[in-house]
Please model this.
Amino acid sequence: MKNIYTNIYTFNKKIVKKTINSLNQGNIISLPTETVYGLAGNAYSKKAINKIFKLKKRPIKNPLIIHYHSMKNAYEDVVFNENFFKLYRKFCPGPITFVLKKKEKSKIHNLATANLNTVAIRFPNHKMIRSILKIVNFPLAMPSANISSNLSPVSAFDVFDEFKKKLDIIIDGGQSRIGIESTVVDLTSTPRILRPGIISSKEIRENLKINLSRKRSNIKSPGMMKKHYYPGIPVVLGSRPINPKDAYIVFGKKYRNKENYFNLSKRSDLKEAASKLYKVMRTIKKKGFKKIFVSKIPNYGIGIAINDRIKRSAK
Ligand code: TXA
Ligand code: MG
Model:
């Protein structure tokens, strides 16, 4: 059979060179991170940012996360504060995104930040993207590598499913270890979680030794979009399927093995469940099931992030 995945590359010196050249020219490529795969482009380049929004069909009001190798690289773009230092020391590089005030002299293109005076920054923890961030002379604007409102991709093949040959380079870094997007925390005033993730609000609270704000965000974010994390077929919560053509996502050892049952974690491990969620949803769609029913998943710690994504996928 003919190999259709000609734009998926394994990581080596040659592809690093090709990737850097492509990014330097303002092109967009896909890179693996520990959370989900991203669509990367030069955050200082209008051409690159425009391309990202076009490719993703993303509403221009929805700002991008800017990715750096380490703290010193972000110094010119954002205003650091004590809470940022504490969380950076504890969790970075890692699956957490900080919203900070944008510096006036910052070169990040206004389109990338949707004209806000804040910037979301992240330091991803995956050796491939880290080696690229170390070489380029600019940070990478990088949303998840999916068409807006679809599920985020957790493998190079998922990215291919979203964009086919519209990308010249998709780097294959294997299955994303964490499998859901980073925790987004606003640090511009009393710290507040804007998007739950693997790093829980409890961990953040304990590290900062202060209570987080529970005020609702008025910033336009995907959380406010009606349809998000949509797997392509209806998702139903709180009941079990009767029709064998419908799939059932379950959690824990009490469920039997059945053709249409997909267990996120037999040993009731929430971390394992998060890492499997998007992958399982994509598999179910591919196998031709008509609907996805989802059983109850504990709503604490990482479970909060999992339930957040499931709820949105059912909207
Ligand atoms: O794990 C991740 O964060 C992945 C990987 C690729 O790094 N990226 C990702 O990006 O999930 P995206 O574009 O799919 O989600 C970015 C989120 C959105 O909810 C967006 O509204 C929010 O970050 N965001 C970006 N800039 C912001 C800002 N200045 N203020 C508030 N929210 C912001
Ligand atoms: Mg996304």
Remarks:
- The longest strand covers residues 96-102.
- The CA atoms of residues 150 and 165 lie 18 Å apart.
- The longest helix spans residues 270-286.
- The pocket of magnesium ion (ligand 2) is lined by residues 143-144, 152, 222 (CB under 6 Å).
